[in-house]
Inverse folding.
C-alpha cells in the first residue's frame, strides 16, 4: 500500500466526539497518568517548534524588516521607503514584468502535460515507457538541468545546429534580452511537465471510463471528447495543476536563472526570487530584500485566494 | 477504425519525439564527457571515440566533487532522518490522539506549507546567524528540516488517519503507553509512507541550491549542487570535464529514480489528491 492509495479522511477533528478516536479514553479518564496526558504534546513539540520558529515567525519578522532601513539606517523605521525604492528599481520592475509573462505562459505550461496525459490515458503505443521517461527530468536539480542546457543552447550548440539544418539562423538563446526569458521558461517547462503529467494521470484514474467509451461509440472526435468529457471531469485536477505550476514558476526557477543567465542579459531574466537573493546575498540590503519578499508573498497570496475562489464556485456546482 | 484509434497512432509521433527530446540532453552531455577537449572542439555531435573516464576523474578530484558529494550526503541524511522522525511523531499525534490545540497546530502546519523559502529567507538567515548556525552543517540541516517539515507532517497525518483506531486500542489494552504505540505500531505501519516521503525529501534537499548557497558560504562546506554551479567558471575552457562534473551530480538521482520511481510518483500525486 502506498501513500497515494490510502483513503483520505479528515485528518484532525479535535472537538468532535467520533467513536474511533478513543485512544486516550481507552481505559477511562481515571487511569491516565500525567505522562500519558502530556504524550501528544511531546510528540507534536519538535515539529511545532521548528515550524513555528523557522517558518511562521520569520514571515512576521520579514514583514517587519521591510519597514526598516539598510546600511546606515539599519534598524530604524523608514515607513514605505523600501517599497518606493523597489518600484523605482528597473531590475525589480523587470522581475515583475517577467511574473506577468509567466502568467501569460501558464496556459501553455498546463496544456502540454494535460494533452500528453490524455494521450497516455488513451494508451498511445508505448505509453508506459513515455510516462517514466517524461517524469525523469522532474527529479533532476534545476542546477543540473541549467548546466546541461548551457551546453545545448550555446551559440554553437546542438539546438542552433539543428535549426541551422532546416535553414533557421542561429539564435543567441541566452544572450539576447528579447529571447533569454523565453528560453529559460521553456527549459523550466521541459524540466517539470512530467510532474504535472503524473498529477493529471492520477486525476484521469478517477474519471468514469464508460463516459469516454460512450462518446467514442457515438463517433465523437478526439477534440470533442477532450472538450466535453475529459476537461469537465478533471476540473479539480486542472485547478490543482494550475496553482502548483504557477507556484513552481514563481519559486523554483532560481537554480535555472543562477546557472543559465545570472539574471542577464541586461537584467531581462530577473524574477522576484532572484532579485531577493541578489539584494540579500550580493548587495547586503536585507531590508530591501524583505520588501521584495513581502511583495512576492502578496503575489502568491493572490494566486492562492484565486484558487480558493474558484474551488468554492465549482464546489457549489457539484 | 474509430477516430480515437487512429488518433492514437498520430499522437504516438509527437510523444516519441518528446521522449527523445527528454533523453537526448543527457545523452549529449554523457557523450561530451567521454570526449577529449580536441574531439569536442572539432565536432561536438560525433560519438566519442571510446569510453574515456578522464573527465569524471578530473571533476572528482581537482574540482572537489568528491568532497561536495560527501557534504551533500551528510546534510541530506541528517535532514531526512529528522524529517521522518518529527514528521511521523506529529502525524501520529495529529491524526490519532485527541488533545487541546491539535486543530490549530494542524492548520498552522498547513499555512506553513504555503510559505515559500524566498519569502522568509532574509529573516531566517538572520535568525540562524544570531544562533551561530550560518556555515555549519547543523544550521543547514535545521533549515532543510524546517523547509520540508510542513509537507512531511501533512502527508504523514493523512496517511496515519487511514489506520483504524481499533489497532491502536488493542495495543493500548495490551499495556502499551502512547510512546509504545508510536514505536511498535505506528512506525512499522507507516513504512510505505515513510519510504515515499523520505525519498521525496531526499530529492528536495539534494537538489536544492538556493538554501545551501545562502546558508553555507564557505567553499569547503559546499553541497554538490552548489559545487555544480561553480564548475562553469572553473572549466569554461574544458567542457568535457564540466560535463563530467554535471553527470557525477546527476547519477545519484538517476539511480534513486530508477529504483524508486513508483514511490516518487506516489508521493507527488499524494500531495495532489490530498491537497
Amino acid at each position: 500500500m502506498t501513500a497515494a492509495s490510502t483513503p483520505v479522511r479528515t485528518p484532525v477533528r479535535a472537538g468532535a466526539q467520533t467513536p474511533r478516536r478513543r485512544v486516550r479514553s481507552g481505559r477511562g479518564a481515571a487511569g491516565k497518568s500525567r505522562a500519558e496526558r502530556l504524550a501528544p504534546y511531546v510528540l507534536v513539540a519538535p515539529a511545532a517548534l521548528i515550524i513555528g520558529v523557522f517558518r511562521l515567525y520569520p514571515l512576521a519578522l520579514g514583514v517587519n524588516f521591510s519597514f526598516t532601513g539598510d546600511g546606515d539606517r539599519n534598524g530604524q523605521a523608514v515607513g514605505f521607503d523600501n517599497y518606493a525604492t523597489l518600484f523605482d528599481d528597473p531590475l525589480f520592475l523587470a522581475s515583475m514584468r517577467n511574473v506577468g509573462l509567466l502568467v501569460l505562459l501558464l496556459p501553455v505550461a498546463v496544456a502540454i502535460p494535460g494533452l500528453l496525459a490524455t494521450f497516455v490515458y488513451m494508451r498511445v503505443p508505448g505509453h508506459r515507457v513515455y510516462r517514466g521517461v517524461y517524469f525523469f527530468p522532474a527529479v533532476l536539480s534545476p542546477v543540473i538541468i541549467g548546466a546541461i542546457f548551457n551546453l545545448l543552447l550555446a551559440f554553437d550548440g546542438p539546438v542552433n545546429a539543428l535549426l541551422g539544418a532546416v535553414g533557421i539562423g542561429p539564435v543567441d538563446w541566452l544572450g539576447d534580452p528579447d529571447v533569454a526569458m523565453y528560453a529559460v521558461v521553456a527549459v523550466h517547462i521541459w524540466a517539470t511537465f512530467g510532474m504535472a503529467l503524473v498529477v493529471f494521470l492520477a486525476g484521469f484514474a478517477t474519471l468514469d471510463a464508460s463516459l469516454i467509451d460512450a462518446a467514442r461509440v457515438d463517433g465523437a472526435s478526439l477534440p470533442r471528447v477532450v472538450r466535453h468529457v475529459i476537461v469537465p471531469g478533471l476540473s479539480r485536477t486542472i485547478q490543482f495543476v494550475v496553482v502548483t505550476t504557477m507556484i513552481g514558476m514563481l519559486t523554483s526557477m532560481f537554480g535555472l536563472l543562477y546557472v543559465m543567465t545570472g539574471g542577464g542579459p541586461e537584467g531581462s531574466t530577473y524574477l522576484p526570487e532572484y532579485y531577493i537573493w541578489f539584494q540579500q546575498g550580493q548587495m547586503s540590503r536585507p531590508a530591501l530584500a524583505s520588501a521584495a519578499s513581502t511583495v512576492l508573498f502578496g503575489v502568491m497570496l493572490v494566486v492562492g485566494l484565486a484558487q480558493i475562489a474558484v474551488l468554492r464556485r465549482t464546489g457549489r456546482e457539484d | 477504425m474509430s477516430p480515437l484509434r487512429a488518433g492514437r497512432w498520430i499522437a504516438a509521433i509527437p510523444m516519441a519525439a518528446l521522449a527523445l527530446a527528454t533523453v537526448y540532453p543527457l545523452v549529449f552531455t554523457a557523450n561530451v564527457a567521454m570526449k577529449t577537449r580536441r574531439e569536442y572542439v572539432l565536432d561536438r555531435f560525433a560519438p566519442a571515440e571510446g569510453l574515456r573516464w578522464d573527465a569524471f576523474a578530473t571533476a572528482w578530484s581537482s574540482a572537489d566533487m568528491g568532497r561536495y558529494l560527501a557534504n551533500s550526503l551528510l546534510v541530506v541524511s541528517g535532514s531526512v532522518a529528522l524529517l521522518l522522525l518529527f514528521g511521523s511523531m506529529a502525524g501520529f499525534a495529529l491524526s490519532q490522539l485527541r488533545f487541546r490545540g491539535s486543530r490549530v497546530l494542524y492548520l498552522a502546519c498547513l499555512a506553513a506549507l504555503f510559505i515559500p523559502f524566498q519569502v522568509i529567507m532574509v529573516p531566517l538567515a538572520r535568525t540562524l546567524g544570531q544562533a551561530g548556525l550560518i556555515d555549519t552543517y547543523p544550521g543547514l540541516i535545521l533549515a532543510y528540516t524546517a523547509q520540508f517539515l510542513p509537507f512531511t507532517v501533512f502527508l504523514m497525518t493523512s496517511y496515519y488517519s487511514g489506520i483504524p483506531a481499533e489497532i491502536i486500542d488493542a495495543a493500548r489494552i495490551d499495556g502499551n503507553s502512547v510512546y509504545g504505540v508510536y514505536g511498535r505500531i505506528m512506525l512499522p505501519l507507516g513504512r510505505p509512507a515513510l519510504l515515499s516521503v523520505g525519498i521525496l525529501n531526499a530529492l528536495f534537499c539534494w537538489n536544492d541550491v538556493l538554501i545551501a548557497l545562502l546558508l553555507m558560504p564557505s567553499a569547503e562546506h559546499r553541497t554538490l549542487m552548489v559545487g555544480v554551479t561553480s564548475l562553469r567558471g572553473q572549466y569554461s575552457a574544458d567542457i568535457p570535464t564540466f560535463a563530467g562534473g554535471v553527470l557525477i551530480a546527476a547519477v545519484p538521482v538517476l539511480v534513486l529514480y530508477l529504483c524508486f520511481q513508483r514511490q516518487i510518483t506516489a508521493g507527488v500525486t499524494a500531495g495532489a489528491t490530498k491537497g
